[in-house]
Amino acid sequence: MSERVDPQELQEQLAQYGYASYLVTTSADLRPHTTHVIVNLVDGCLLAKVGRKTAANIRDRALVSLLWMPIEPGGFSLIVDGTGIANSEGDEHSVAVTVTAAVLHRNADPQGGYQADCAPLDGRS
To answer: Is 69 inside any structural domain?
Structure first.
């Protein structure tokens, strides 16, 4: 995903999906590390408090993804990719993610009710 993200459209999606998300980083052995976070969108960046391991992962490998589950059955997931910067002060860790791409995505209905869809949040209608 490499589309320009419309910050206003992302804010509108967050208002619908909520601010609780799953943050996916990559550990030293290149395995995915997933954690639950609460995000705030400030000046186009997603900010969240994280744990020590997540902060360390982001310092070493800055590419991250955030995932919001569908709001209703058959609905779209919100997937956001970005570049993170970890900050640590004592035992407090946080991350600022600069959003590089975001899409609404759903798989096809196995019963044939709808096709797979993917719509970038890039300001295009």
So the answer is: yes
Secondary element (H or E) of residue 102 = strand 92-106
Give the tens place of pLDDT for each residue, 1-51: 334 567 788 999 999 999 999 999 999 999 999 999 999 999 889 999 999
Single-letter amino acid code for the residue at 64: V
Report which secondary-structure segment, H or E, holds 45: strand 45-50
Could you tell me if 85 and 76 are in contact, meaning their C-beta atoms sit under 8 angstroms apart? no
Structural domain containing residue 23: 7-96
Per DSSP, the three-state class of 5 is: coil
Per-residue DSSP letter, 18: -
Supply the pTM of this predicted model.
0.86
Q: Are 93 and 55 in contact (CB under 8 A)?
A: yes
**Taking every pair of C-alpha atoms in the chain, what is the biggest distance, in angstroms?**
53
Contact 23, 66 (CB under 8 A): yes
Instruction: Report yes or no on 17 lying in a domain.
Output: yes
